[in-house]
Amino acid sequence: MLIGVPKEIKNNEFRVGLVPSSVRELIANGHQVMVQRDAGTAIGFANATYEQIGAIIVDTAAEIFAKADMVVKVKEPQPEECRLLREGQILFTYLHLAPDPEQAHLLQQSGCIAIAYETVTNRHGGLPLLAPSSEVAGRMAIQAGAHCLEMMNKGSGILLGGVPGVPPAKVVVIGGGVLGTNAVRVAVGMGAQVVVIERSLERLYQLDVQFGSRVTTIYSTADSIEEYVTDADLVVGAVLVPGAAAPRLVTHDMIKKMRQGSVMVDPSIDQGGCFETSRPTTHEEPTYIIDGIVHYCVTNMPGAVPRTSALALNNATLPFTLALANHGCVPALQRDPHLLNGLNIFKGKITYKAVAEALQKPYVEAVQVLQ
How many CB atoms are located within 10 Å of the residue 248 CB? Predict the structure, then answer.
């Protein structure tokens, strides 16, 4: 198979779909790999490094989209990239289609086969290709939130961990999955007073065992969210419904009751955001203020640490990329129900139910389109 890796063009996205070690594995398995010039240069992967292991360097993304059997990316294709996709071409990347009707329409129109990292599953019911980004985003959420609490960033001027004689900041994490757990870990490590709100009693038990008395675990209800959010210095929205739009759990009325200078960090913004006041921001302009509350809603948080993020992502995606290349797209999807869960669009048809429901479009079961 001929696999193509275009340079990412989303705002401040410096990651690369395939790092050199992944390219080497694919070539060792008998495949060809095309990499757009300077696709990995910003994070220390020079063109010469790719060439030395056998990759073909090309000058433009158009060459890759015109020739590759499979395109491997990091972020969702931008409109100009969607228009380059071909009938039957495999696209393997993050998509986050539920809050993005334009992208969904363009992917359907292209006739491509779009497989989303964020809905591929494993035998434990987890999301192994979303986990690396969730780990990074969870840890970054506390780092970003602590920075936003500083007075020069319009925050309340509170040090997350406090000092002897002065209490630490109150941190509330909504959601106890991979992202939430990593946020809790960093917040605890920085000495904050941490509350995690989660609707799964099993997950609350696991968090209690993991963190003990250093974290307060609370069952998620509208009342508990309002009680703890309105008293928080920093709130992290770590809510995820696989493939679907994030539920808006924190209302504008709750935010109005918060102390001035408190901070809201919404890593779920890629799926539309879980705060009623959330709207996408960028690394260049990461925050905005509503009713005196600082909002940090950067849509590609792991992009701020692209080398770490790219390596972590490739560790997770490589086995699936190899499966698609070694067996061919349809056989690979038929062999592996977990990879099949990643199929969002197949030659114009939406094959992921939550995406179809969010976009109010017809849904076709994935197994049907492969027959």
Answer: 17
